[in-house]
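re: ur question from yesterday

yeah so i grabbed the chain u mentioned. its 383 aa long if i counted rite. heres the sequnce exactly as i have it in my notes:
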Amino acid sequence: MTDLFEHPALQEAPAAPTRRRSAASRRAAAKRKRRRRQRTAVVLVVVLAFVGAGAYLLWDRMDSLVGDLPFIGSQNEDYPGPGGEPVEVVIPEGATGGQMGTVLQEAGVVASVGAFTDAFGQNPAAAGIQPGTYQLQAEMKASDAVAALVKNEKLQTNVTIPEGYTVAQIVDKVGSVTEITPKQLEKALEDPESFGLPKQADGNAEGWLFPKTYTVQPGDDATTLLTAMVKQTKHELEAAGIDEADWEDALIKASLIEREARAAEDRPKMARAIENRLDRGMTLDIDAAVAYGLGKPGTQLTNDDKADTSNKYNLYKHLGLPPTPISNPGASSIEAVANPADGDWIFWVAVNLDTGETKFSETYEQHQRYVDELRAWEEKNGY
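ran it thru and got these structure tokens back, copy pasting raw so excuse formatting
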């Protein structure tokens, strides 16, 4: 009998199952490899998405900063200068060097933003460039443009309105130093809503045009300037803590004080004397108001003027406050109305017309002594 393990057929038979398992293993391995490739592809797509998003955010952030960084290559193109036709440019509030460069490039002043920002970075004084309207030249060398802006020689006019000026005086003053004409101002004053005049003013801007120095830029018109004045008056009233409902009365009182007082320390005392007289039902007897109603200087008042009942501003004949402010008061007069001094004064008189020295009194007898002092001063000084 032949040995089982020596039979040729039986010796080859075990090899078949081994080959079938190897094929299956290969198929499984291939399947696993395909799955790994798919997972790798998915991971790669996700990673690339994150990288792309990060790159976009980085570029977006850099783009917001690059306006102030030097450009390279053709983006640094510069004109040789010195420049040609005049060009007006407006540098906005808070502008960076890059933003200034953009304004100038678009206006044809500089050849590129890059050249300007290079020059801006090299000029230590460039950080002091102020907003405003400037006259430069077309096709300037970037460094020359920066140097011109550094001078802060803006195309603007400063107009100073003194405390106590009337609307009529303000119209004349503005017309004399700016391109805004008196006729333009008078026309604008006819439309009080256009410049923010409160309804309690009843269309009369007297008292609401705050006295200070204003900057008039090219392109500003009468309405622009009047709006700034009224806005400043509202700010001062709010800062003094005066209720909005009392603004007009406060300005009337402050305007009286503005035209009567010379020294800062007298203003709160005058404010108190006005309140004391109003509380007692007394006429205010203020010459400045009488003069305003007549359109003449207070030094030219006559006894007939003080007896004229047709003058609504005659505070010798009419009780209470005048119908409107008589001037445009400054901050110290408004503050005096908001915070009057403590005292029982009901009279005041300037005893020295040169210095404005003023004396206050609580009784008529005392007041008359101070009036006599004034008369003696006037006689001595030829008044």
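noticed a couple things. The two ends are 166 Å apart (CA to CA). also The chain has a mean pLDDT of 84.
anyway ttyl
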